[in-house]
Amino acid sequence: MLLKTLGLFFATAIAEILGCYLPYLWLRKEASVWLLLPAALSLALFVWLLSLHPAASGRVYAAYGGVYVASALLWLRWVDGIKLSSLDWFGAAISLLGMAIIVSGWKAA
Question: Is the pLDDT of residue 109 over 70?
Answer without folding.
Answer: no
